[in-house]
Amino acid sequence: MDLSLLLHDTLAIGPISLITLVGLVVLTIEALHNKTENINCWISLVGLAAALVLSLVQLPTTGTAFSDMIATGGYASFFSAVFAAAGLLTVMLSKSYIKKQSIEHGEYYAILLFAIVGMMLMAAATDLVTLFLGLELMSLSFYILAGFVRRRNESNEAALKYFLLGAFATGFLLYGIALLYGSAGTTHIPSIVGKAGMLASSTMFLIGCGLLLIGFAFKIAAVPFHMWVPDVYEGSPTTVSGFMSTGGKAAAFAAVLVVFAPALVRGVEPVRDVLAVIAALSMIVGNVIAIAQTSIKRMLAYSSIAHAGYILVGVIAANSYGAQGVLFYLVAYTMMNVGAFGILSYLESEDGKNVSFDDYRGLSASRPTLALLMGIFMFSLTGIPPFAGFFGKYYVFAGAVQAGYTWLAILGVLMSVISAYYYLRLVVLMYFSEREQDAPVIAVPTSGLGMAALVLSAIALLGFGIYPSVVLNFISHFF
Amino acid sequence: MTISLDLHMYLGLSAMLFCIGVAGVLTRRNVIVVFMCIELMLNSVNLSLAAFSSQLGDPTGQVLVFLVMAVAAAEAAVGLAIVIALFRNKQTVNINDINILKW
Amino acid sequence: MIDQYVPIGIMMVVAIVFGIVLANINKWIGPKRPSDEKLSTYESGMEPVKTARERFSIKFYMVAMLFIVFDIEIVFMYPWAVKFKELGLFGFVEMTVFILILVVGFVYVWRKGALKWD
């Protein structure tokens, strides 16, 4: 390997190199100057926008870099674009939010950028070593971000719970990697997937897959490894919860689709069965418990568990329909959940209040635009056309039916109907309910940047919903 | 693949250490001790990796051991920082007292 | 045959003499005015004998945290050192990038005052 190759490879993983560099620059500026929040925010925005453009430019290419450790172009670029977009929206929403919470430090942006680097590495990994590194980079950044409001007990507690359970899950994931390496004799993921049919009878391989599944199930927030989700999402800063639930989940699913690729899932029957049970449980538990919530933040956390279940259905289907459905679903979910958490962060008070269902009564009268946007996100989360959430569910369930998992598809549709109850309850409260007379009105400063992010995600939802082919054209040749 | 007796022993020890770590995480109530048990889990995996690596005659496993050590160090730093932040607010490191968020 | 070991023999003698001299040179040429305080066991400035169940200053945790993170990075230099010649300029550039990233972290820690004891 010589220097020109090094340069070539560094450029080939352009978005990753770029975001790393921007993160380091932000950190250096933060260290060398005082009062740098604004400049760091703008640098992050520009860097993420550039990474988004670069990812889209590299989308048609395909290849690998760094001795076949990282994939470039295609699938990896697609996910880089998703993470850059999610990061962009989150940074736009964060600027006024972290000011309101008095946590306006440049480190916030730096750690957010490093988390994005981790996600991109996970999606681009063609080797279990790279996958592990990406996963840890993302997780460590999230542990810090969850506890970013140091003075607030809830934030500390969220960070600690996330950290302990996350590190615990990392142990299982790593043991899984070790056993896979031992049984397959390599950490190169495509080689392992290629040997899957042959290895399916090896006990060590099956145990390895099982342990890996535990680790991943934790990261995608699937039952029975979901206990941390509500607490962490509720205690973390709201913009961070939004980012964790979308970017973090998308990254974990990107890795799941690489390791538990359609070929492996079809070839190793026990893995498929376990996945089916996890998916079914996630859909049931997430949706049923979400009904009982009084805080919207917590409701969204349980709904995030349910959505992990829906998306897993596409992984189990293990055909091109299902796999494309997973990617489309992740794009849609990113837009709608960043949006929903964005509105929560917009209306949240300084002490973390004003996020319950009752606080949103009669919102359409006081803040018509926000109510309309929240309505769009809720409709999309329910899966009602013409929003993008509908097509995500459609492709995932269609894939399941095609693969002979009709019972999962039926369960998924039934659970979507149940989910309509709590998503649409919020819409009803906003539009057809009066605000209680004695309820204190919380004055919220308007933020142009945050509003722009919300409107952008709503437009994207509508656009991808009406023209799903915009996304599908890109992803149709991946599987 | 034939597995030699030696590899069996290393893997057995590694599995035992891993289980001790898991049991510790599930039963202990002091955050720092829980954290030490997690480190035990990671290091038992390192033993497996090194054993596989020597069995297969392939250095990837050993490289992964290095990376795991570095990651575990970073994790330790982040974990300690979180525990310190928590302790400053609540004056406790007992998991049972850390319970504002539920349901 | 035996004369091949002469350099090693000389090396051994030099090492032993050097060790003995270094270990005792203080005793031979330094002035001695012993007092209670000076004769007590020295342990990094801490009271050597007392109850172990006490709380340490939080500053120790800070130093420990920083030490763990920066200390472990040395592990990546061992493989590089072993393969230094084969990797050549490529390895050097890679390692420079790695260390530059660490330097950013170090500058951050430094400027934020985490290295100050007081």
Q: How would you describe this protein?
A:
The complex is a heterotrimer of chains A (479), B (103) and C (118). Chain A has 479 residues and is mainly α. Chain A has one domain (3-475). Chain A is 78% helix and 2% strand. In chain A, strand 1 (62-65) and strand 2 (70-73) form a beta hairpin. The longest helix of chain A has 32 residues, at 153-184. Chain B has a single domain, classed as Helix Hairpins, CATH 1.10.287. Chain B is built from three helices and no strands. Chain B has helices at 5-27, 31-56, 60-90. In chain B, helix 1 (5-27) packs antiparallel against helix 2 (31-56). The longest helix of chain B is centred in the C-terminal third of the chain and has 31 residues, at 60-90. The termini of chain B are far apart. The mean pLDDT of chain C is 84. With 118 residues, chain C is an all-alpha fold. Chain C has a domain at 53-118. The radius of gyration of chain C is 23 Å and the shape is flat. Chain C is built from five helices and no strands.
Count of discrete structural domains of chain A? 1
Number of helices of chain C: 5
* Biggest sheet details of chain C: none
Number of E-type strands of chain C:
0
Tertiary shape of chain A: globular
Q: Biggest β-sheet of chain A, characterized?
A: 2 strands, antiparallel
Approximately how much helix is present in the residues of chain A?
over 70%
Q: Report the strand count of chain A.
A: 2
The low-pLDDT segments of chain C are none
Summarize the helix and strand pattern of chain C as letters. Answer: HHHHH
Mean pLDDT of chain C: 84
Structural class of chain A: mainly alpha
Give the neighbour order of strands across the main sheet of chain A. 1-2
